[in-house]
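Example 3.2
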Amino acid sequence: MKTNSIKIAFLIIFISATTFAQNDSIKKERYTDHNKGKFTVSWGGNRDNYSKSDIHFKGSDYNFVVNNALAQDKPKGWQIDYINPGRMTIPQTNFKLGYFVTDHYTISIGIDHMKYVMTQNQIANITGLIDGNPPFNGGYNNTPTVLTEDFLMFEHTDGLNYIYTELARQDDISHLLGIKNTDKFQVSINEGFGFGLLYPKTNCTLMGKERHDDFHVSGYGTSVKAGINLTFFKYFTLEGALKGGYINMPDIRTTQSASDSASQHFLFFEKIIAFGGIFKI
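Structure, written as tokens:
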């Protein structure tokens, strides 16, 4: 009888210890331990750099290429327009909505609203022919030419809209930094690959012609990115990212005439800061 009592006592102790261990394990499970099934959303701003680009202009009475044209972005600085619904397209902005298909991998859709401004009054070599547009008529054979406002203004400022799908991986590195409670603060790194369409509203004034001034699907782009993501109190995120890629636009509308168009391709580099959230529905 005494032996049975001892066995029962050990059994009770074992069950109690197992139960406490399970409860302790449950208590240690944090919201940030798993990401599968969560949505992410972010909104922020960017600064951009562009490689030189050959811009090909053609129409019924001209066909010429501006070689190695320089361009830059058009920053507005940090201002209320980033959160003003009526003026959100004025600064350079980024929007992204994503879903974690596993704990590490997300599929996202987004739009990078960049701005591309060809440098005015630069001296560029031009090759081609202009006819019927005085005083610019003539043959050009790699001819150095000042790109004055009355000859050519060329901008994607409303904007250089890259609408993309992205596959990315995210990894929690909090433990490497000695962070134990990731529900309060978590640090992750991410990297991804994207591809999509270019949907710019091109502002082009070419030899006095009336500009097209409307949105138009002009080409495609691809991109890679790497970033660091900070999560505060489980749901709030701050991300800094570097993003680079290739843009090819073979069908840019320039003037009101459907026979007028431009084409170009170039590399781009973005620096992005975005605020957002991570949540389950």
